[in-house]
Amino acid sequence: MQLRNPKLLRSESYFGGEWHSAADGRTFSVGNPATGEAIIDVADLNSINAAEAIKAAHLAQADWAALTVKERSAYLRRWFDLIMANQDDLATILTTEQGKPLAEAKGEIAYGANYIEWFAEEAKRVYGDIIAPPNNTQRLFVIKQAIGVVASITPWNFPNAMLARKAAPALAAGCTFVAKPAQETPLSALALAVLAEEAGIPAGVFNVVCSSDAPAIGHVLTSSPLVSKLSFTGSTQVGKVLLAQCATSVKKTSMELGGNAPFIVFNDANLELAIKGVMSSKFRNAGQTCVCTNRIYVQRDIHDVFIEKLVSAMETLNTGNGRDDGVNIGPLITNKAAAKVTELVNDALEHGAKLEYLAKMDITAGDNTRFYPPTLISGVNKHMQISKDEIFGPVAAVSIFDTEEEVLAAANNTEFGLASYFYTNDISRVWRFGEALEYGIVGINEGLISNEMAPFGGIKESGFGREGSKYGIEDYMEIKYMCLGGI
C-alpha cells in the first residue's frame, strides 16, 4: 500500500496518548477483501487492555470537560483539517481494508470529516434554559453537561465515518471516547487516532482498542462503571445483547441497528429520477449499508418500463478491485457474506421470482469468492426471505403494487424502521405518505439522505438516538436542573 504519509498505517492500539501492542504479543491479520491478501498484522488486545483504555479516558475526562467550548472546538477543527489534508491516503487505507471503490472511499472520508467540522461548531451552541419559578423566592435553571466516558462499537462497512460521527459529538460535548472498531477494518480507526494525536487532542481523550475478541471487549465496555454511555452501530441481534449488558449499570445508549428499507415508485413519479435514486441507494458500497434499498415496490402501470430502465442503468456497473479505475462495485466483506446473498437470491428464484439481469464479471482473484455480480430480480413477494432480511449485497429485488394503501402496509410490515424512500409528483401524497411511513428517515424523490446537518437514526427495532444535526450532541449530555432558593 503506497501512502504519501506512511505514518497513517499503524498496527498498535492507541490509548492514554500512547501506542500499545498486546502484552502477550498476540496479533490478528487484516486482509484485503478484493484480493484475499494480508495487509498487516494488528495488535490483538484483550479485556485488560480495554479496561486500561477506559481508565485513561476516565482520567482525562474532567480536564477535557473543563475546557471552554471554543478550546474543544479548536481541537476538533484541527482534526478536521488534518483529515481532509490526508483524504487520499485515508481513502487508500479504507479501500484496501474494506473493498469499496476509491471514489466512494474518498467520499466517506469527507462525509466523516463533515461531522467533525459540524460538531466543532455545535460545541458552541449547547443551550440551557431559565424556567419561570412557581414563587418569587426561587430561580430555576437548566444546564447541560458532558455525560462522561463514552464507548463505541462500530462496523466494517463505514470504518471511518461511523467512528467520526460518534466521536465528534462526544468530544464536542466534553466527553472522552473509547472506540472498538470492527476486526475486519481497524486501520481506518487507527489512522484517525494518528491524526487526533497530531491535532494535539490531549492524551486519553480519544482512544482506540483493536481486538479479534469482540464479545470480550464489548463486555468490558458495557460493564465498566467508568463508562457512562455506549454508542453502537451494527446488527439488531448484537444490539439487543449490548442493551441487556448495559442495563446492569443503567448506561445511556444509542443504537443504530438493522434496516429493511423500502423504495417505492408511484406511477406519477419522474422515472429518470427514480432510477438515479435506486442506483445510488441500492448499489453504494456494493449494497452493504444499513440504509440501502432492500425492497423495491413499483406501481403496476410503470413496472415493465422501470425494469427496462433499471437494467440499462445496471449495465454500467463494473465489479472489481476498488482501487482499479472504472470500478464502482467492490467485493463483499467476506466469503460468508457473499454466500448469504447467494442464498437469498436462490430462495427467491426457487419461489417464483424472475431473474431480470445478472452482470458478467471478469474477476481474477484466485479462489476469492467475495465478489457478487449486480443482480436484478422481479416478482418478489413478502413470503420470500429476501424481502425479510437485509440483503447487504448488490441485488435489486422488485415487487409490484396497485394501491397506495397496499404498498404502505407492505412497507411498514417489518420490525425495522431505519430508512425509507418513495418517488411521486403528488404533493398531497408527499405529506400523507411520508407521515404514515414508520421510519426514522424518509427520502422523498431522493436516494442520498444522510448528511451531518440532518438527524440520522431509526425507530422500532432499528434502534434509537440520533447522529448528526443539532440533535446529535444531545445524546452525549445530561440535563441538570438547579433550583436557587432564598431570594
Task: Describe it.
The protein is α/β, with parallel strands linked by helices and 487 residues long. It has 2 domains: 6-257 and 462-482, Aldehyde Dehydrogenase, Chain A, domain 1 (3-Layer(aba) Sandwich), CATH 3.40.605; 261-452, Aldehyde Dehydrogenase, Chain A, domain 2. Helix content is 36%, strand content 20%. The protein has 13 helices and 20 strands. The protein has helices spanning 47-66, 69-85, 87-98, 102-122, 161-173, 187-198, 214-223, 236-247, 271-283, 303-314, 335-350, 404-412, 427-436; strands spanning 13-15, 18-20, 27-31, 38-43, 129-131, 139-146, 149-153, 177-180, 206-208, 227-233, 252-256, 261-265, 293-299, 354-358, 375-378, 395-401, 419-423, 441-444, 463-464, 477-484. A 7-stranded mixed sheet has the order 14-15-16-13-12-17-18, sandwiched between helices. The protein has a 6-stranded mixed sheet with strand order 9-8-7-10-11-19, sandwiched between helices. Strand 10 (227-233), helix 8 and strand 11 (252-256) form a beta-alpha-beta unit. Helix 2 (69-85) runs antiparallel to helix 4 (102-122), helix 2 packs antiparallel against helix 5 (161-173) and helix 9 (271-283) crosses helix 10. The longest helix is centred in the first third of the chain and has 21 residues, at 102-122. The mean pLDDT is 97.
Shape: globular
How many domain units?
2
- Oligomeric description of these chains: single chain
| CATH architectural name of the largest domain | 3-Layer(aba) Sandwich
Strand order of the largest sheet: 14-15-16-13-12-17-18
CATH structural class of the largest domain = Alpha Beta
